[in-house]
Structures are given as C-alpha cells and as structure tokens.
Amino acid sequence: MTEKYALLNQGEDNEMEVFGYRTVRWRRALCIIGYIFSLGFLRALFYWKPEVDIWCQCIPCSLSEADVILLRTTDDHREFLKKKVMEISDYTQGSKSGHQVTKKNSIIEKSLMKKTGKIRYVEAKKIRYVWNTIEGKFKKIGNLEEELSCSDIHSKFGSGLTAEEQAIRQQICGPNSIEVEVTPIWILLIKEIFNPFYIFQAYSLCIWMSCGYLEFSSVILAMTILSVIATVYNLRVQSVKLHKMSISYNSIMVTVLHKNGEVKEVESQSLVPGDVIILSENKRFLPCDAILISGGCTVNEGMLTGESTPVSKVSLPWVESSMPWKLQCGEDYKRHVLFCGTEVIQTKAHGLDLVKAVVLQTGFNTAKGDLVRAILYNKPMNIKLHREAMRFLLVLVFIALLGVAYTAAAFKKNGASVHEIVLMSFLMLTIAVNATLPASLTLGLLYGQTRLKKLGIFCISPQRIILAGQLNLVCFDKTGTLTEDSLDLLGVLPSNDKSFQDIHLFSSGKAIPWSPLLGAIASCHSLIMVDGKMQGDPLDLKMFEGTGWEFESHASHGTKDGESISCTMVKPGPSAEEVPVEGIAILHQLPFSSSLQRMSVIAQITGETDLTVFMKGAPEMVVKFCKPETVPHNISTKLDYYTTQGFRVIGLAYRLLEKEGLPAIEHLERDMIEADLIFLGLLILENRLKPETNPVLQELSTAKIRNVMVTGDNLQTALNIGKHCGMVPKSSKMIIIEASEPQKDVPASLTWKIITENQENGYKESFQGFHTVMNDKWNPNTSQPEEFHFAIDGKSFQIMLQHFYNVVPKVLLNGTIFARMTPKQKSSLVEEFRKLEYNVGMCGDGANDCGALKMANVGVSLSELEASVASPFTSKIPNIECVPMLIKEGRNTLVASFSMFKFLSVLTMIALTALVFLFWKYTFLSNFQYLMQDVAIVIPVCLTGSLNGPAPKLAPFRPPGQLLSPSLLLSVFLHVLLTVGLQVTAYVLLQQQPWYNESDVFSACLPFNHSAENIIAKVPTITETYLATTIWIVTGMNYIVIEIVFSKGRPFRQPLYTNYLLIISIILQFAAFLFFLFGDLEVIYTTFEAVCTPFYWRVYILVMVLVHFVLSYAIEEGILENRNLWLLIKRLCNYQSKSQYRKLQRRLMMDTEWPPQNRTDYAIKSVSVMDSKILVIKNASYQPPTQSSSESLGQQKII
Q: What are the residue boundaries of the Cation-transporting P-type ATPase N-terminal domain, all occurrences included (predicted)?
C-alpha cells in the first residue's frame, strides 16, 4: 500500500506536498445541503479554502486509491489546491498486431495499471502528472524521460516515433499548446463577488440597510458595483492579452520524421516528446523545446534570456554511456537545446544530413510555458508583510469585538430592544475592517508598476516592487552591464618558440600577417549573416573586423569525395594583407560556454587536406589544452601586465587534425578535438566602462547600498574595473583569496594575499605593480568592515564552498569582486548572500545570469523585451541607471502602502471611538453624514494617496520593512490617543455648555433664528442631536488631519504638494466641512440631519481640530519620523540589528585575527578511526612537510 503523502517536483521551485483523499458520499450530500442553507457562503468558503472543502467531504487514503488530492506548496505562503484524479480509460498498450509500442521503462509504461489498462493523472497549474505505479508517486508528463543517456536519445528517438507511439503519447501527454483560455465574464464576475472582502461588503450593506442607512448603502452599493465592473474589465483585458501571447506559434506547420522514414507536415499541436522535427533553412519560431541531434543552428533567445545576441546551438554528441544526458553535458546542456518561443535564425546541416531535433518538452512544460505560468500563478513574495497585515487586522477585529460587547451594554442601558441590540452590534463589526484596504494597496502597486513602465522598466510580478525598496546589496554583471557591450581592439601578442614576440597594435593600421594566429582570429567565432548583416557576440564581431577579412555564410566547399557542402567561409578582404590561402571553411563549431570558458571550431584551409582546430577562450583555460613546450614561460607575467590595466585578454591556440580515418565531424568528442594544441598568443581588447556606471555606483554607495561585481572575466581585469568604477575605493586594502583542491597528503587550502596599489611606479608586470604588505596589521578597535575588500575567482569560491564553508559568510561580508564565475556559481553566490539576510538585487544582461536573476530578491535584466523568463524585471534602459530608479520606486511604493495602512487603521479607530460616544447617548450619524466621511474623504484618499512620485535622491537609509515595526505601531497608537483625546474633549466640553440639552436640540440657536416657531415645532430624529452633529464635524476634520499627516513625502517620496489630485481633494474636503461648520443654512440641517449650535461652539470645534492637527503633525515629524531621535533611543537601549550579517560584523570587529593576512589556511585533515567510528580531531593542525617553524606562524587551521 502506498503512502498517503508524497512530494511533487522535489527540489524544484514549484515543489508541492501531495495528500491522498477519497470522497465520502454522505459527507458530500451534507455539504450540498449546507450550500443551500448558507445561501452559498459555505461554497464560497470552500472556494477560498480548498483544504476545508476536502476535510469536510473526504477522508484520507493512500495516493494509489485517491480520487481527490490536496496539494500544498512548500514555500512560506503554503497555498492549497484541490485536484480531482482523472483516468485515461481507452489507453491501449499494444498495436493491432499485438506488439508493444511504448518504450521499455518509459514513464508511460510505468504509469499503466496492468489490471485495468488505465492511467491515472492530475493537472495542477497547467502541468499534467501521471501516477507511476512502480515508484508509487505522481510524475510529471509532457517531457522526455530525464534518465535517458545521449546514446539512448540518438538510438531510440533519432529516427522518430511510429504513428502508434505518437498517438499514445499525444493521448497521455495532451496537445502541444500553451493556451490560456479567455475567462468568460460571468466566471470572472462570480470569482470577484466571492472575494472575501466583497462578501464582507455585502454583509455590511445588509446591516446598513437594516439600520435605515438607505442613501449611504445605495451609494456604497453603486461604488461596489462599479469597482467589480472595473476589476472584471481589467481581468478580462489581461486574460485576452495573455491569451494572445500564449497562442502565438501554437498552431504552425512543422516537418516531422516518422520511424518508417516518412516525412510529414503536421500542426505543431500534435507534437509529443520523442518526435523528430526537421528544421529547414527558413526562419521559424520553435513550438516546443527540442534537443538538436543533427546539424547546427543559430537562434535568438531574447524571450528566454532577455538578450537578442544570436546563440549557436550544436547537436547532442553520441556518447556511449549510461549517464543521463544532462549530467553528461553538465552545465552546458542548454547549448544542445532549442527552446520554445525562440527564433531559429539559421540552420546548418552536416554534409548531406538534415538538421533534426528530438522534441524534449511540450506545452506548459516548455521554456515559454514557464513564462506564461509565471504570469498566471505569480508567487506572493511579501509573505512576512502579509502575515503582519493579517495580525494587525485581527487586532482590529478583536477591538471591534470589545466594541460589540460595549454596544450591547450601552443599548441595554438605554432600554433598546433585543433586535436593535443585535443589529447595532453587527454594525460595530462593519467598522473594524475597512473594505477599501485591499483595493488601496493594490492601487499603490499598480501606480508603481505604471511609473516604472514609463521609465522603460517592465514588471511581471508587481509584489516585488515593494521588495526593491528594501535592497541593501546589488550584484552587477560586468560585461554589457557595467562596461560597454562593444570592445576596442588594442593588439595581438604572438607567441613563437615558447616566447612572446613584439605586440602587433591595431592602431598602427597594418594588417596582421598570415599565420595560424590570423587564421584563429578570422575563423574561431560564431558569427552569422542575417539579412545581409553580420550578427553575433560583440567580441567576435570586433575580433573579426580587425582582420580585414570577409564573411560568406553559404559558401560551397569541396570534400575529399569530390562532393561540395554548404558551410561558412571566411576570405581575405581588400584591406587584408596578401595571404597564401583563398580562405578558411568553418565546418563545425563547439560554441562558447561560460562554464567551459572557451570555444573551438574545426576548419579547413582551402587547398589543404587536413583539418585545423582553432580555440579561443580564457588564457588560463586555453593553456590547459596546449602542449607545455609551446606555452611561453612568462605568460603569467604578460597576462597580469595587461589584466591589471583593465584589458580583456583572450588566449588563442590551434592544432592540425589528420582527416584520414576520422569519423564524421559531428560525432567527434570534444575531449578528442581539444587536446595537444599549440599556443598561438594573446588577443588584447579594451572594455570601457559605460558613462553611467560611475555616477550610479556612487549614488548607491552614498545611499549605503553595497555594490558587488560578479563576472565571468579575469580576476585582475575585474579588479581594475572595480577600482575604476569606484566599487573598490583606492584607499581600501584588497585581499585576494586563492583556494587549492586537496592533493594526496595535502588538504585543501586557502591563501590570503594582501595587495595595495603602488602609486609610484604605476602598473608593472606581474605583481610588481602591487607590493605585499607583510607586517601591516589592523587595529581591531578602529577597523571597519569597509576598510578592506575580498576578491576571489569562481574556482576558489567553489573550493571554499566545499571545504571551508564556515569561512564563506565571513568572506561574503566584505567580498566585492567575484571573477571567473560560472552561471551556477553566480546563483550560489546570491543564495549565500540571502542566507546572511541581505536583501539582494541582481542586474545583468540575462544571458549567463538567469539563475542569479531568479535567485535574487529582485532581478533586473537589461533587455528590449517587456517580459522574459530571465527575471521579474526587464529594463529597456541599456545601463545600470535602472537600478536606482527601481529602488527609488520600491521605497516610494513601500512607504505609500504603509502610509495607506496606517491611515485606514487610524480611521477605523476614529470611527469606533465615535460610535462609543454616540451609542452611549443612544444617537447615530445620518446617511449623508456617513456619505461625507466615507465617500468624500476616504475614497479620494484611496484613489490618489499613492500618486506621489519617488524622491529624486536615494536616502542613506531604508524605510521600515516591517508593518509591525516599533515606529509604525507607535505612530498608530499615538494618533489613536490623540483622536480619543480630541473626541473626549469635544464630548466633555459639549456637556458643559449652558445650552446643551439632550431632548430640546433646537434651542441653542433661538436668539438668532427668525423661524423659531417652525423649528420648535419640529420633532427631532435620533440623529438630530448636539452630540451627533459635533462628533460628525470633529471626526470628519479628524479624517482630513490624518490624511495630511500620513501623506508622507521626503526622504522616500515626493512632497505632498506634488500630488495635485490629492491636494485638490484635501482643499475641497476641508472647504466643505468649514461650510458645514459655519454655513448657517437650513438646507445643511435638513439634508445632513444636523442641528444648529452657537457660533462660538463652532469656533471651539475649529480650534480643537487645529490644535489636534498641530499636535499630530509635531508628533509624526518631530518624534515618529525623527531618525536621529530613534538612533539615540536605540543606542540608549543598546538595540542591535538581528540580521545575520550584522551579527557577524559585530563578532568579526572583536576578532583580532580577522581578516587573515598573507597566510595559508588548511582544511581539517587529521582523523582517527576507533571502533569503526570516525573521530574528527578539530584542533589538529596540518603542517606542510617542508615548512619551517618561522613560516608556519602565518598558518592557521580552519575549524
């Protein structure tokens, strides 16, 4: 029997817990009866709480027997989903002839229930999961089996599927379409009406109407209907827009190869995992994810990465191994995968073979499907903020419940009937939760999203805007982000006879003479010709332009068999120096990979029979594949000389490849091709900083936001760029960390080198331009974390993660330069920063930064697209100016949301306090009095309160990120006290007036009223009392005061006077209440059911309100928003930040041994085995065998 619980998508972002349940008929029948008797409210509860639905109608059972499952996400939000288990009953495993048509051990085979011939499945968030009968759990369907090896894909799927296999897979996997149906208006309407806040609004309307507030209820009802209509309209527009986005390329014609060799044109919707599609030379968009198994192609992955630079794809190698193909290919498996939604710009067949690809994933499992699902099922990011808001609302509800008890007591004292007591108690509950709160907070996010869109910053996850306001660390990619995309050629440094020759400067105007070095520069690239224009990586473009050669994309090249093939050919141009060759044919590419840090091509020089392999890449990587006798002994010196000056250096190498006896080029393994190379030299390029980089980094540093560089470039180059852009101040000390893997008897080690720039001699070769500080020690009492910076490369970072993990947080605390980082290492780095409780931003071009962009709290991809899978934010601004813009808007939106929350919370307490006084005297406010408060004041504030733009300058501190922060809670508490004080003062003073009378409410104005007889003859209503009139004016003006005080401007928002709509609204509101206060007109008294009071009392009211305004403003600005005062209070209370990185900073400040200086630390090595148990001796210290006692003083054991 299987378990009742399992994990779905274990280890992935969309990981969910699965619980099995079986429906009980009698329980379901009772629930249906409950729907009827509760007038649908029970059904609404089940809709919003599916876990309650299942608990009421079902009982737990094993997953294998379940007809309903409950899914729960494993993130902080803990979202529940109820899904019905479906069955495919007409599945047939065999063909008409009886032979098996499903692959052995395939997920389809494992999902078949042998006894019944059925397959069970569920669909959750557009993904289908089938029940694996062998493993006893649900498995994702719609993709090729992950355990397949490279040889399996080629042998089992390389020739396509049979018609029967294709039909079965289509039946089980479903159609290959990413279609989001346009939700019918009536469904949108029902879903919106069943929103908990609208249900509460309906409850409130019923109570208000029962209490006789017909006019007020009618207006609120009309506004609610308009709100529902507007919301449904917006949802409908978004649904249509998403539908149009999703159906693009859903139904295009593709060429499919069947197992019998037949080639058919079919609609893309019929594709299934395992199909083989043939790619023609024409441009096309991919309707699925596919693995390239034959030929090569160039694609535009702008939708996926946000970067429009063409990317070369190569076929999956045929490797005889049982290892799954993704593990076999490592981090670079994506260079064999064509992603759905990307555009195939160019294809390239190998010989006479076709360009073929095996369908990997279909439908919503694809890369494009991920983007659509990310928009459809946007994860709520502010989990902590949401919880704090709910706690705050629960406190208000608790206060309202106290108000209910008070109401019952007050009305019983006044002799009210039971019906009236119950009705008024319910009325008190309607005040507790302001129904405009969710709409107000949503409007704030929408306004922020709109402002960002105007700046060219697009967002698919509006909740993350608030997270941007809390960033205190931003990681930047270097190339294309901090520096220009284009590179300027400086020169080439040839190598010959194990030594470097004189540098050839491109500025001299002389062409590079013919040599294998020129051949490498001319041919080792991934350029393509699109519509007559050469496209590709900026480095490749600049490198090729420097040769003076020409590019021909579809040239004819003869083979040894006398046949000609189409390939890319490069030939000398008019400006090139005469060379003894007609050109070079590029036959095969091994594209550049960030993790491999190199690329290679197999080429053939015209007129020669043998092939030539050319390689370019990171010099330290290229050297590893070269014969040692061809590498100059001073390469490190030369490399350091140029990289410390900020130049980008590329290593070049080549080898001859005898063509006789070689297998087909596309079947050659990379390890065989890239071996025994001859080192050719170094290509030196200059990568200039973007003009916006320095000012932006300075702005962020001034705002106390840490800047970190995360690049794939050389460490010395990154250091130089870091100093030139101000990321590393010239006065700071730099510590380079180098790590070594364990070798035989020597454990893994960390070496700490302190370097400072030699101002006298400038840059010299190697480390001559830097001198090692041997005896310079920091004073622990005066050192600050900012006084030194760590720099480390990707290899050392990986070793540190594996062998020195306890040191990682300490290094990250002052780590500024991270070089030679692979995409996976970038993602790990961001994850480690987040573990220290930094709020991390990541800005990159999207190509190699996808993982880091997603891992960061806020990821910004510099892209021309409005949405990409790469990150939640995409910026059309091609530089890092978008980062401070986003942070400013994030802070603005965060403060606006908190201000709105404070306003509506205090407003609730004002209303509750007013009802306390009114109910004690058995009186109420009238319909139009409520209308003036809620419609004329509250709603305009909710609509316009968040329209302030962000402050033009970043403040050197962040706004509070917690809703339940001391300053916010104190603000609400003090303003509630002031409100209570104002109303108590008005209440007490009113009763002390000589004209005050609870029964004769028209006598106060008799000496000044010319129609006294008519007034006296009028019978007062329950709302026409001195107290009700006074409370109405006082609370109305109190609303306006709070509205002004909470409309916070600097330092995070534009001042109040820049919000013209809100200013006009405040002026009109205040003028209206002044008119009601002093306008002695009968129409006011009759319409609003108010009573006339003496003129001096009206002046008293105005004075009380003005005093309240002065006190409120003084408290808010002088105490609650006084940063210096709060800092003083924190010091006096010895308050210290509880963030992990702050705690670590404080510990390291007291550590006299930190940071390490010019020493080598070793990982724990010594262990002893006793009684079959390994005992780690933590105090053991490894000593190198040749180490002298004096030198060993600089070594320390890492514990």
A: 140-213
